[in-house]
Amino acid sequence: GSSGEKCDFETDLCKAFNELNLQPGWIRRNGQSGVGPPYSDHNGNDSAYFLSLSSEMRFSSATLRTNVFLPTDEEHVCQITFHYWIGRTSGTLMVGLQKHSEDNITNIWQDSGEWQNQWKANTITINSAEKYEV
What we know:
three-stranded antiparallel β-sheet, globular
């Protein structure tokens, strides 16, 4: 959203997500958790938390849904910047947009991880004349 709040998962799932929106398969962990790479966050901090897919989810998919965002307009553009890591077990990370009048989710960005085992950053800009979730 336009207010520019940061979400770092240090204490909780931030305002953007709530517990109900964390599907089975997603875990909040840090690099010291012994789960495997990544062993630090995008800043190289091994005690900083991030969200990760558990290894049991290797062949299936899991979704993270944001809370509802208000419509965008000329003054209120929504830009979401996020850091992500795709490991060796190749998967696809997708960002979808669901407007409240629509049942379907529109895929607005994806990456299948050609640059594996390193953190990457991406910014997406969202325009929606109605309330939406990402």
